[in-house]
Write a structure and sequence with these properties.
Distance between the termini: 68 Å
Number of helices: 4
Largest sheet: 4 strands, antiparallel
Order of helices and strands: HEEEEHHH
Length: about 210
């Protein structure tokens, strides 16, 4: 009798297993739905014609939304999206660039005092360069004075070639040194602004709370 009961149980299990396989083989129906101009929902097992060019939903088992398909974009929408995407990419680029600069700043300076020391060193170097150019101008003008004195003997007469050339060359040398001084003065303002900006940003980064792990 036990053998007959076991046989019946095995038969039932086999039948249930076969039914399960059959159920899996039958795919759940796919329903596609959209809303028409009046806001009414239109559905079908294939995409209804009224849904062409509209957003629609694909409903799966138990009427749940399996996926949503957006409506095709108009030319104006595509242009707007392209502009927004370009703006987003530019913002991301600027953010990445700022992060890179911030990290370089923190790698360069260990403290606010480091920034002040480097600022003072740069300003000393520029001041020394300006001083050297001024000294060079003084030397050139002393040399030019010699040519000026010689030129006094040739009033109302044509200057000798070497005197004329000496005056012209010294004038050009003075102008060149004056250009150097002007450039160094501009550099001084750039350096002053750079280290002021570095100090301000370093203080901001140093006082920013550390991100929690």
């Amino acid at each position: 009798m036990a053998l007959r009961v076991a046989a019946r149980l095995n038969g039932r299990l086999l039948l249930l297993a076969m039914c399960g396989v059959a159920t899996n083989l039958v795919a759940a129906p796919r329903i596609l739905c959209c809303h028409d101009d009046a806001g009414k929902q239109i559905c079908g097992d294939i995409l209804p014609p009224v849904c062409y060019g509209r957003a629609y939903r694909e409903l799966g088992e138990y009427g749940r939304t399996a996926r949503v398909v957006e409506a095709p974009l108009s030319a104006e929408q595509r242009t707007r999206r392209a502009v927004e995407e370009k703006k987003k990419q530019e913002e991301e680029r600027l953010q990445n660039e700022q992060r890179r600069k911030d990290q370089a700043l923190l790698n360069t300076y260990g403290s606010e005092q480091d920034i002040e020391m480097m600022r003072a060193r740069s300003e000393r170097d520029l001041a020394a360069a300006i001083k050297a150019s001024n000294e060079r101008i003084a030397e050139i003008r002393a040399r030019r004075k010699v040519f000026e004195n010689e030129a006094e003997f040739y009033k109302q007469r044509k200057l000798p070639v070497e005197v004329e050339k000496g005056l012209r060359d010294t004038d050009n040398e003075i102008k060149a040194q004056e250009s150097v001084i002007e450039a160094k003065k501009k550099d001084h303002e750039i350096v002053r602004q750079k280290y002021s900006d570095d100090l301000r940003r370093f203080i901001e980064l140093s006082r920013r709370p550390s991100p929690r792990s």
